[in-house]
Amino acid sequence: YRDSSPVTEESRSAVMENGNGEYNLYQPEPQLIFEGPFVCENDAVLVNGQKSELSQDDCRSECVAQGASCSFFMYVPQLRYCQLLQKCDQIGQTGLDVMHELYGILPAQEYCRVADPEACWTSTKRRRLLEGLPKDAS
């Protein structure tokens, strides 16, 4: 059904074939959680989890290379500074005019990509949210 409606071109190109003819095996990109003068608690930083002079992509790669111990990464573009975090249960304000970006990494496993994310939101998810229906309601 990969080449059939309602699968959008964006979804089709985001999901690559794994070599065995299977298509809907998808690893989502890191999710931006916040951007601003905020930080997570100090004890969340992994040992050797503070890195300088990295790009955002390099910061993400460092976190992914840590495996399950790295659930978040904080990137400061102005400083090219990266923190690898095991958690972020408490968010505090820095009081500085420096923007931090916190990204969440989903656990390494295979996910299915929604065929048409916009239609799913507009026809199903938004309706349930506005009507106050439980997640499992049709």
Notes on the structure:
The chain is of the alpha+beta class. It is built from 3 helices and 7 strands. The chain has helices at 9-14, 56-65, 117-131, and strands at residues 31-36, 38-40, 45-52, 72-76, 81-85, 91-93, 100-104. The strands form 2 sheets. Strands 1-7-4-5-3 form a 5-stranded antiparallel β-sheet, with helices on one face. A two-stranded antiparallel ribbon has the order 2-6. The longest helix has 15 residues, at 117-131. It is globular, with a radius of gyration of 18 Å. The two termini are 23 Å apart.
Give a quick rundown of the structure.
The protein has 138 residues and is an alpha+beta fold. 22% of the residues lie in helices and 25% in strands. It is built from 3 helices and 7 strands, in the order H-E-E-E-H-E-E-E-E-H.
